[in-house]
Amino acid sequence: MASLTGVSVGFLGLGDVGRPVLRRLKACGANVHATSRSPALRYKMARDAVNIYKAPNEVNDQVKDGIIFLLLSKQALIDAFLNGPDGLLSNLASGALVVDLGQTSPDATQNYAKLVEEKGAHWLDAPAIGSEQDATDGRLSIRVGGREEDLDRALPLLKEIARDIKHMGGVGAGQMAAPTS
Fold first, then answer.
1. Mean pLDDT, rounded, for 145-152
2. Alpha-carbon gap, residue 125 to 109, rounded angstroms
3. For residue 59, pLDDT beyond 60
4. What Pfam families does the record tag this protein with (predicted)?
5. pTM of whole model > 0.90?
6. Which residue, of 38, 57, 119, 125, is most buried by count of CB atoms within 10 Å of its CB?
7. Angle at Cα 65 formed by Cα 98 and Cα 30, nearest 5°?
8. In terms of CATH, what superfamily is 8-177?
9. Cβ(21)–Cβ(134) under 8 Å?
């Protein structure tokens, strides 16, 4: 594992694959700030010494213009975490990079990217393919869509969670290249 000491990372999506991804980033020294709408899950992650918050905008307050990962299983969840008075878009910092590790439709990805870009931030669609064990072992496969300079910025983090990372083109290309699960 490489050192990510001093890197501040936001994380939204603490499901079966999200938790081991978050733990890998934390084990590399990243200062991880996460959120969950579930009080029980917030408690469990706080026991793991993860900085845990009730709402996405609180994660933004910590990460500022850093990198925020989404690993959400449904479009409705992405909508809920992005929009609303306490959503990511309410106070997303200019210069932030949002990396969607979930499988999202290419059309929705294009829409989310536009909303994020309106805030002066950037979007990568980078669906992570693999099991909970793959996430634990850092063996996910990722197909990335978005600007190459944004991929370069996220690459040190992505290399800690994936063994197979390929840039496929502009926003939406990662989602189109990823196999559906």
1. 98
2. 7
3. yes
4. NAD_binding_2
5. yes
6. 125
7. 80
8. NAD(P)-binding Rossmann-like Domain (3.40.50.720)
9. no
Is the model more confident about 59 or about 15?
59
pLDDT at 9 over 80: yes
- Location of structure tokens 């990511």: 88
Per-domain residue ranges of the chain: 8-177
Strand duo 51-53 + 31-35: pairing: parallel
- Return left, alpha or beta for 127; rule: phi > 0 is left, psi -120 to 50 is alpha, else beta: beta
- The residue type at 115: L
DSSP H helical ranges for the chain: 18-27, 39-47, 56-63, 75-82, 106-117, 132-137, 148-161, 173-177
Q: Residues 46, 23: contact at Cβ < 8 Å?
A: no
Query: CA 29 to CA 58: how far, in whole Å?
Result: 21
Q: Which residues face 123 on adjacent strands?
A: 98
Single-letter code of the amino acid located at 131: S
**What distances in angstroms separate CA 170 from CA 115, 123, 143, one per listed residue?**
16, 10, 11
- Integer Cα distance of 138 and 98 in angstroms: 20
Structure tokens at 139: 């063996």
Q: Residue 141 in contact with residue 163, Cβ under 8 Å?
A: yes
